[in-house]
From TrEMBL:
This is Glucose sorbosone dehydrogenase. PANTHER family: BLL0591 PROTEIN (PTHR19328:SF40), HEDGEHOG-INTERACTING PROTEIN (PTHR19328). SUPFAM superfamilies: Soluble quinoprotein glucose dehydrogenase. It comes from the Bacteria. It holds the Pfam family DUF7133. Residues 50-371 form the DUF7133 domain.
Length: 394
């Protein structure tokens, strides 16, 4: 890992350009700014982002508010949903220089449109207790068509809960519906993953016993569904673990609220005698908040990163010292996770430079990272050593 430190020379906003690998050295290109209080207006500060050798990080887009989840269209348009601000944006890098130069407001005034998915030319968005669809969206970015309702049986938003969705290999829309509590026995479909036929509206529950699943993806080798589930709060700094799970049998129960991680028994609820629980494939540290999960499908990164899982750890709040705030790679071997390593860390001591929420594949083999702390989107790319050239950074 390499540390990158840059003086803050303005007190108005944050701007990040790119880091490049120059023959084993990392150089910062551009300027970084961070908002500070007036009392600190003349105090020079510094922040640090840590990246693995060979990788670069650039600011793809900024000033997007409380952004959450990302999805990419067939033509490379990046769509981003917000939470409380109720907006959905489309972002276009028309000159393909690694930075957005056109942005379009697709919708405003929606209720919690954080979950997005793209399929067959259409953008799907969660809104209130339903899922809506913007058809032929990439040809209508300036004037999107009126959204059509495709599913209306989501739980009411009276109790806020996490939602995320992706289209699966079978063409159905999979939506993860979190539990509306820290720990409770919530009625279905809370705490489950549903598979929905968007043409007929027919739905099927494929997994249950979940607390808060946001990041999920299918293995490019086996088509098995993998997902991250956030552990409960208020049990201490180091328990329970955040989980990485794999769905092998449709209808499996993954333990919540009776069992957390592999072996932490919930004191408030007794497990039903006949309930079979599927244990996690891998345990992450407690409170890292694994909100984004994607298999890397590109070819830009070196071979050892390909077809492995990348996880966005949004970072801890229910802990005496901070953990997470990073992008990690989970190395796979024979359909098992054998190692976890940090690729990008946004935590400078106890100061979070960013809170990565989602991480997804970009069409050119890079990866996009959403930051719900600053409203930024970063682009993670790899600089092959043979492509590096010495540059004057004066």
């Amino acid at each position: 890992m390499y540390n990158i430190r840059q003086k803050i020379i303005s007190m108005q906003y944050i701007r990040l350009r790119s880091y490049v690998n120059l023959g084993g050295k990392l150089a910062f290109m551009g300027v970084m700014f961070l908002a500070l209080t007036p009392a600190l207006a003349f105090a020079a500060q510094s922040v640090m982002i840590t990246v693995t050798k060979g990788f670069g990080l650039s600011l793809y887009a900024s000033d997007l508010g409380d952004i959450k989840q990302l999805t990419v269209g067939d033509e490379g348009t990046l769509f981003v949903g917000s939470q409380k601000s109720g907006t959905v944006y489309a972002l276009v890098d028309s000159d393909q220089n690694g930075q957005v130069d056109k942005r379009y407001l697709i919708a405003r005034g929606l209720d919690y449109p954080e979950a997005l998915a793209f399929h067959n030319g259409s953008l799907y968005v969660t809104e209130e207790d339903r899922i809506i669809r913007f058809e032929e969206i990439e040809s209508r970015l300036r004037r999107p068509s009126r959204a059509r309702e495709v599913y209306s049986n989501l739980p009411s938003l009276d109790k806020k809960y996490s939602r995320s969705m992706h289209f699966g290999p079978d063409g159905r829309l999979y939506i993860a519906i979190g539990s509306p509590c820290n720990v409770c026995e919530a009625a279905s479909p809370f705490g489950s993953i549903l598979a929905i036929n968007v043409d007929t509206g027919a739905s099927e529950q494929v997994a249950s016993g979940l607390r808060s699943v946001i990041g999920f993806d299918w293995s490019p080798d086996t088509n098995k569904l993998w997902f991250a589930d956030l552990g409960r709060d208020w049990m201490g700094d180091n328990i329970p673990a955040d989980e990485i799970n794999r769905l092998d049998v449709k209808g499996s129960h993954f333990g919540f609220p009776y069992l957390h991680g592999k072996d932490v028994i919930e004191p408030a609820y007794d497990k039903p005698e006949n309930l079979n629980i599927t244990l996690p494939e891998f345990e992450l540290p407690a409170h890292v908040a694994a909100t984004g999960l994607s298999f890397y499908r590109g070819e830009q990164f070196p071979e050892r990163y390909r077809k492995n899982i990348f996880v966005a750890e949004n970072g801890s709040w229910n802990r005496s010292s901070k953990v997470g705030y990073q992008i990690v790679m989970l190395e796979m071997e024979d359909n098992k996770i054998i190692n976890r390593e940090t690729v990008v860390s946004f935590l400078d001591g106890e100061f979070p430079v960013a809170r990565p929420f989602d991480v997804i594949n970009a069409p050119d083999g890079a990866m996009y990272i959403s930051d719900d702390l600053k409203g930024n989107i970063y682009r993670l790319f790899y600089n092959a050593p043979e492509q590096s050239q010495e540059t004057n950074n004066e």
